[in-house]
Amino acid sequence: MPVWLTEHEYAVLRAACAQMLPSDQGAPGAEEAGVADYIDILLGAFTFDPPRIWAGGPTSGRAGGAPEFAHFHRLSALDELAWRMRIEGSQGLPGREFNGPVIGLQETYRRGLAALGDDFCAADGAEQRRRLRADENFRATLYGHCCEGMYAAPEYGGNRDGVGWSYLGRDGDVQPRGYTDEEVSGP
Amino acid sequence: MTVDAIIVGSGPGGSTAAEVLTRAGWSVVIMEKGRNHLLDPHDLTRPAADYSNDELKFTVRHFLGPDPLVEPRAFRRRADEGEHTHVGEVNSIPSTVGGGGTHADGKVPRFREEDFALLSAYGPQDEANVADWPVTYEELEPYYAEVEKAIGVAGRAGANPFAAWRSGPYPMPPGAPMYGALLSSAAATRLGLHPYEAPTAANSVPYDGRPACNNCGFCSYFGCPIHAKGDPVALLTTTMATGRAELMAETYVSRLRIEGRRAKGVDYIGPDGVEHSMDAKVVIVAGGAIETPRLLLLSGLEHPALGRHLMVHFQTIVVGHFQDLRLHPYKGRSVTHVHDDAMVQDERSRAAAVEAGLPWIRGGMVEHAGGGFLIGSARHMPWGKAHAQAMRDSTFDDRMWAFIMQGEDLAYPTNAVDLSPSIRDARGFPVARITYRPGRHELAASGHHGKILLGVLEEMGADWTILHSSPGVEEAGLGSSPLPESRHVIGTARMGDDPATSVVDRWGRVHTLDNVVVADSSVFVTSAGYGPTLTLVALSSRAAHHLAGSAPG
Fold first, then answer.
1. In chain A, where does DSSP find H-type helix?
2. Are B225 and A175 contacting, i.e. CB atoms less than 8 angstroms apart?
3. Which residues of B touch A85 (CB under 8 A)?
């Protein structure tokens, strides 16, 4: 079950993400990395307590240490205001419209996914790409989030099992192990 | 309650003042508008454990603040562009306990002797207010030495042939050189330049109870997960251990309460969202060169130079691609080598100045730097089938090396910070509006030194190179964004002996307010071509010692 999107929206988002970052010649894509889950969790960040905005520190456990990334930070009142504005939009609330209305990501995705068409999942790849190109603003937002979902720490819901890092030969987070001086200075 | 000093801002400037004053027996309250992720909330004499190798948290999700949705800034290049052309993030330095020190990669060079005497050494420039500082390098040297010890600086005396004299060695030897920097340094040396190990406030050996850097690579723009970076955590933990300091995070100072020639104290909004007041014998303002003039303007201070002469370091960015190399810039301290040749006059730079119709040009410190992180790189890559291969090619990451010249900005009265007429922060106060564009000097220096740096990348073996700048300058064909990327903000409450032309005196005290001291890079008279941190910290130390009647050591 998606966290915030409807089942249908989630299916459209998965298909759209798969066009943004397709699996290719052994490289994982958005599908393998769970990029749609990353975006759904961002949109539904406030359904978690604490909200899924900032992963904890200092270590994830992948390079030693305790799995502290999993313990998300609490937000201050000001941070909560900022992130609710960013995700939910200002919704006509005076406390959020001190510089005018703000369109939130939830509305951006609800409209953007609807505009891709009810039959988006059934369309062929070329048609899906054509529809994605039709709205440059939404496509740019979606692509930015796809990059985050592919390469951010897995605790945010994407980059499943670190596939976005491993196909590039990267370690992601490396504390507390770090790198030796020889690894830094050598080829 | 009246405390000895309220310090507004917990970054390197405010932390240094707090450390010096509490050492001298003063009681201080440090008010910081951002959150505390630097010190352990259960024991403020110890570092916290909130920082991490997390690109999303630090570079995308504003963990260190400010969040531009609730604390935006306004921007325009020129006054005739209208009220503003951009609202959002502009030159943001972290708004968090520790301020800009938390996200800096810790390069902390000293300025040189001539940087404090630019007018005497070089002469005037049309359009700019070139001036000498009322402080000399000789006067500041003991404070440089003191703060280098306090925060822990790794470096090698004598490595930079152009450096100013020093009274002693660096507290630590340099850390491990990055592979790419070794290659770029060798190429630069072959072309007659003088690269050296960057003086860096990251431990190369265990120091002051904090561990040696373990080269995780999450340095520039990140808080250090193991606190191998000493600035300003070392100063703040020492301060809190005196028992004479209170740290108030999420505390937004909205106004200095000015009565005649004194500030009685400050008004602030606490984490409870309610406005309070506190009195103090002295108020030290250390919000950085954008927030400091904003606060002084919000407090009703009037001075023709307040907010003027904003300098940011015009960045010349030269990028090379190396098809046959894997430079792994993600291992190490972000930047381990720099060179100062672009700040030294030679026949070529004199000829370039003549050609530009200028009396002289000065560049800035050149950082030898690697590529970005994965999310940042990916955003520049195509979507669709080409994406994965483009990431594997790692054009903007593993196969890229770059030089970033932090070019000296001259002080132009038209580059300024003032209060936005219409944009507010979430608490309802006018935000800072930045008006900034580079002048002819910056463009000429960038053009001249950019060509030299392109030659170094070619000598290093680059198969293609790109030259651009930040901010972009459309008419010069450089870059695209008019917003400066530089996080070095300087010069908006200029220091001087003449109250008519400067905002603060040689001790950082506001000329018209007997008990208000500015302790950040706002007071700089020139920007030099060096990151401002160590110099602002040394000036803050000097100002605080002057207040307390104590001596550095």
1. 7-20, 30-33, 35-43, 77-88, 105-115, 125-134, 136-151, 163-166, 181-185
2. yes
3. 69-70
Question: B287-297: per-residue pLDDT in tens?
Answer: 999 999 999 99
Distance CA B44, CA B36 (A): 10
Q: Note whether A74 and A54 are within 8 A (CB).
A: no
CB atoms within 10 A of CB B5: 24
DSSP secondary structure of B45-102: EEE-S---S-HIIIIIS-TTS--TTTS-EEEESSGGG-S-SEEE-SSPPP-BTTGGGT
Cβ distance B426 to A98 less than 8 Å, yes or no, reads: yes
Average pLDDT of B104-118? 96
d(C-alpha B433, C-alpha B84), whole Å: 8
Token pair 């400066």 in the structure block, residue: B484
Pairing verdict, β B28-31 and B2-8: parallel
Cβ-in-10-Å burial (0-12, 13-18, 19+) of B75 comes to: buried
List of chain A residues whose C-beta atoms are within 8 Å of the C-beta of residue B175: 181
Model-level pTM? 0.97
What are the pLDDT digits (tens) for B199-222?
A: 999 999 999 999 999 999 999 999
The type of residue at B19 is: E
| pLDDT at site B322 | 96
Return phi, psi of residue A163, to 5°: -65, -30
CA-to-CA distance for B435 and B448, rounded, in angstroms? Answer: 25
Confidence tier at B335 by pLDDT (50, 70, 90) = very high
By the 8 A CB rule, do B180 and B368 touch? Answer: yes
Structure confidence by residue, pLDDT tens digits, A16-56: 999 999 998 789 999 999 999 999 999 999 999 999 999 99
Antiparallel, parallel or unpaired: β B262-269 and B196-197: unpaired
Q: Do B271 and A156 touch (CB under 8 A)?
A: no
B164-200 pLDDT, tens digit per residue, is 999 999 999 999 999 999 999 999 999 999 999 999 9
Contact check, Cβ <8 Å, B179/A57: no
Q: Return mean pLDDT, chain B.
A: 96
Q: What DSSP designation does A152 have?
A: S
**Which chain B residues have a beta carbon less than 8 Å from that of A178?**
213-216
Prediction ipTM score: 0.98
Distance CA B451, CA B388 (A): 33
CB contact under 8 A, A25 and B226: no
Contact B51 A60 (CB under 8 A): no
3-state secondary structure B306-350: CCECCECCEEEEEEEECCCCCCCCCCCCCEEEEECHHHCCCHHHH
> Which of B285, B319, B278, B320 is closest to B301 using CA atoms?
B285
Angstroms from A6 CA to nearest CA on chain B: 25
Q: Which residues of A touch B392 (CB under 8 A)?
A: 27, 167-168
CA-based nearest distance A52→chain B, Å = 11
Task: Report the C-alpha gap between B87 and A48 in whole angstroms.
Answer: 31
- For A82, the closest of B67, B214, B250 (CB atoms) is B67
Q: Sort out which chain A residues have CB atoms less than 8 A from B391's CB and list them.
A: 27, 168
CB-nearest to A82 from B53, B70, B424 is: B70
Distance of residue B123 Cα from the nearest chain A Cα, in angstroms: 43
Mutate to test the interface with B, among A38, A81, A184 (most CBs of B within 10 A): A184
Q: Which among A86, A173, A184 has CB closest to B179?
A: A184
Residues on chain A touching B428 (C-beta within 8 angstroms): 98
Q: Do A77 and B273 touch (CB under 8 A)?
A: yes
Give the tens place of pLDDT for each residue, B408-446. 999 999 999 999 999 999 999 999 999 999 999 999 999
Contact between B67 and A99 using a beta-carbon 8 Å cutoff = no
